[in-house]
Amino acid sequence: MSEDVIPMTEEGHKMYQDKLERLRTVVRSEVAERIRQAKEFGDISDNAEYESAKSDQAFVEGEIIQLERLLSRAKIIDRNELPTDEVNLGSTIELHEINTKRKHTVTIVGTNEADIEKGRISNESPVGRAILNQKKGEIVEVKTPSGIAKYKIFKIKTTL
Asked: Residue 28 is inside which H or E element, if any?
């Protein structure tokens, strides 16, 4: 596994920290209690509830390890250091699709924070790569399965 720095918005970093804290405190305790209760049923060698709880425990511990690794490699984007006239990580952009005349508002985030339903696209996605470091008014082309899509960068905001 690569140990490269992972760019992340402050909001995304907090979200992952909160999730990690919840897993460490609340979820870990809940699973431990399930294991304790399952042991009270007697023989654990043939106890489905015990096996289920142990499986959940392994999953939770694995998730904790993943989040700790992610957060240890995270580099929070300092928006104050970013140029305000070009698209960067953390920028919110209004794009106008030239062929269809549709408008899209997207925020460029690191891969781990991407959520298309919330308009958060990865800097490594085709659209993200195409608009990164571009300026307002520029037209970019993005190769899609249905052909080349052209977008005009209409607005750039540097805050989420």
From this structure: helix 28-39
